[in-house]
Every structure is written in C-alpha cells, then in structure tokens.
Design a protein that fits this description.
Blueprint: H1 3-14, H2 16-24, H3 29-45, E1 50-54, H4 60-66, E2 71-76, H5 79-88, E3 92-95, H6 98-101, H7 105-108, E4 112-118, H8 127-134, E5 137-148, H9 150-153, E6 162-166, E7 179-183, H10 186-195, E8 198-204, E9 216-223
Parallel strand pairs: 1-2, 1-4, 2-3, 4-5
Antiparallel strand pairs: 5-9, 6-7, 8-9
Bound molecules: S-adenosylmethionine.
S-adenosylmethionine (SAM) binds next to helix 1 and helix 4.
Length: 225
C-alpha cells in the first residue's frame, strides 16, 4: 500500500465515529435525495441471493439488504467502522483491506450474485482489485460501482484524473483527518472497468431532484466472456 492509500485508511479509522453519525443521522443530502435508493434499486433489480459490500463502512447497505432477506456480507479496512456495523447486528462483517480480500478464505471461497462498491473506490490503483473480484462473481453475478459523479465534484479544477483532498466539511462535525482521493473523469471510469475485463451493462446518473445536477455515476458490470 502506498502512502496515500495508507492515509485513506488512516482517515477512516480516525473518522469512524463522525462518519457513522453522518450516515445514521442522514446528514449527507445526496444520499437522502437519490443515491441510497439508486444503489438499493439497482441491486434488487438483479434479485441476488448473496451480496458482498466491499468498503461497507458502518454497514447501512448490508443491513438494508439483510432486512430484505438477502445474504449480505460487508468488508472494510477500518476496524472501528466494522465495530459500529457489528454492534447493530444484521448481516455479517469482516475487517479486511482491499489487499487482504483475496487471501481471506471466508470471502474468496464464495461466489457472489452481486459485489458492490458504494462510494468506496477512492484510491488510484484499483484495476487489479476489480480484476480479482471479477473471478468471484457467480454466473449471473454483477459488479456494481457507485461513485461521486465527476461533474458534481470537479469544481474549478481541471477535468482530468488526479489526487484531490476531501476535508469532510460538508458531512457534519467531528471529522479529525482529511482524506486523499483519486478523481477520475467519466472516460477514465469506463476505461478502468474495461481494464478489469468487465463489460458495462448499465450506466445510471442519479440526479438531484431539485437542481437537476448529476450526483453519482452508477455502473453495473458483468464478466467479459
Ligand atoms: C465513503 S466510505 C463508504 C462507506 C459505505 N460503502 C457507505 O456507502 O456508507 C468509503 C469506505 O471505503 C473504505 N476503504 C477505503 N479504502 C479501503 C481499503 N484499501 N481497504 C478497505 N476499505 C477501504 C473506508 O474504510 C470507508 O469505509
């Protein structure tokens, strides 16, 4: 793991309580008005028996799926977030970094009908991770990625790939560490998925119901044969 990837995980360890409060007190507007429903609806459309939520945070999505009768498992590299998830019970949760996923018997021995990243692909070098998870999809399996829409977060900076910094200023209070994250253009997201030998079945752009601006990019992929 390089320095920035380590700093990403460090920030989630430090910000676990603040993030849990932001999610559970519904402080992130985009999630309330569009993106939570978008990811749930997308997953349910494929009627999965089991789902792996990678970078699950405090576990809200796993709980949503578990309560609909789906065998849902969440993994995250930040132990304090997994502690928060386990404290609420529903679903199963494991502390695993992305690098550790492949070596974990409990995860790698299973094929999933859906593997999901909900705003959890924040680093630069993720092609290999996607490529290895691709092999864990069942025959009808989908790999589903929701990420911030590049148009929504580009701001005044040039529209090109590169590292940026999230201060969490708009997420509520109590955040202790900023987080480096890797900005990708829409074209780069498509190229990333193709580099992992995945085919895009659907590309959605949930929008803000009032402003009409795009909030997220939601890619549903299957294995290229
Ligand atoms: C923006 S949060 C999203 C959490 C959750 N998916 C949700 O929708 O609320 C990003 C998550 O990715 C996790 N994450 C980032 N890099 C990781 C890595 N290399 N290994 C494991 N987890 C990682 C963080 O710990 C954090 O929980």
């Amino acid at each position: 793991m390089d320095n920035r990837e380590q700093q990403i995980l460090h920030s989630w360890n430090e910000n676990a309580s603040a993030w849990t409060e932001s999610v559970r007190s519904h402080l992130i507007e985009s999630r309330q008005v569009a993106t939570n429903k978008a990811i749930i609806d997308t997953i349910l459309k494929y009627n999965p028996n089991n789902v792996l939520d990678v970078g699950c945070g405090e576990g809200w999505l796993v709980r949503e799926l578990f309560n609909r009768g789906i065998d849902a498992t969440g993994t995250d590299g930040a132990a304090p977030l997994i502690d928060k998830a386990k404290a609420l019970g529903d679903g199963s949760f494991h502390v695993l970094t992305y690098e550790e996923l492949g070596a974990s018997n409990v995860i790698s021995s299973i094929n999933y009908d859906a593997i999901v990243f909900n705003f959890a692909l924040v680093g630069e070098n993720v092609s290999e991770l996607l490529n290895s998870l691709r092999k864990q999809l069942s025959n009808r399996g989908k790999l589903i990625i929701q990420t911030v829409h590049p148009f929504a977060v580009c701001g005044d900076e040039p529209y090109r790939d590169g590292w940026r910094v999230e201060s969490f200023a708009n997420f509520g209070s109590g955040y202790k560490e900023s987080m480096p994250w890797y900005f990708r253009t829409v074209g780069s997201w498509l190229a990333l998925v193709q580099s992992a030998r995945l085919r895009i079945d659907e590309c959605l752009e949930p929008i803000h119901p009032v402003t009409g601006r795009p909030l997220s990019l939601l890619l549903t992929c299957s294995v290229c044969l």
